[in-house]
Every structure is written in C-alpha cells, then in structure tokens.
What does this fold into?
Amino acid sequence: MATTGAQEPAAVIDRSVRLKEAARLARKSTDTIRRRLWEDKVPGAYRDGDGREAPWVIPVAGLVEAGLVGLRDLEAFDSRVDSKYHELEEQVAQLTAELAAAELRLETTERLLAQANGEVEHHRRMAERLVPAALAQWPKGA
It folds into this structure.
C-alpha cells in the first residue's frame, strides 16, 4: 500500500479498539462482536474494569485472528483513521485559536474590571469626604 501519511496495515494491527470501532472495522453488528467476545473467540480482548458495564479493549490483531477482519478491512480502516486524524487536527487547531482569543478577552475584561473597581473605590472615598461636609452645611430646618 502506498503511504500518504496513513499507517501501514501492520501498524494498524498493533492497535486496540472499543466495541463500536471493532464492529465498524469488521463490518459486523456490535451484537456479533459482543457474542464473539463472550465466547472468548477474540484473542487478547479484555474488559477495561470490573463488571458487565466495563468497556471492551479489543486488539485489532485479535479480530484478524478470529477471522472477523481481513487486509482490505485494515486498509479501509487505516484510511478512515487517517482522515479522522486530520479532521481532528484541524478541530484542535481551531479550538486552540478560539481558546487564545477567549483568553485574550478574559484578560482584557479582568483589566477593565480592575480599572472599574479602582474608579468605584475612588468615588466611594470622595463620597465619604464630601457627604459629611455637605450635610454639615445643609440648613437644619429644611
């Protein structure tokens, strides 16, 4: 297989996947893959935790050995993984830019808030000085 940044099938076979990804890779239903797992027909598969709710970790090599996945499936899977990887890279770059912009807005907002708090404090001090003086000059019977 000619490479265009995608992994060779040999590299893909060293990966492990979860149940839904295994089903997509094998082009089978999740129920079919789950049955093979319960029957212990997928070498190297295990649950990542205790109990029936723990997710399965399924070696791609185990799917191949169980006859659920062939070379064509690996090549197609490799292509989809590579495509998804690049899509996610673009999303990460976009989110990184958005985060930088949000951090800049936050920094600006914090600076403006500090400035506003300083002005409020200045006005409070002025009021503390001026109000008693103004009340002292206010006519008593008015």
Notes: Residues 23 and 32 are 8 Å apart (CA to CA).
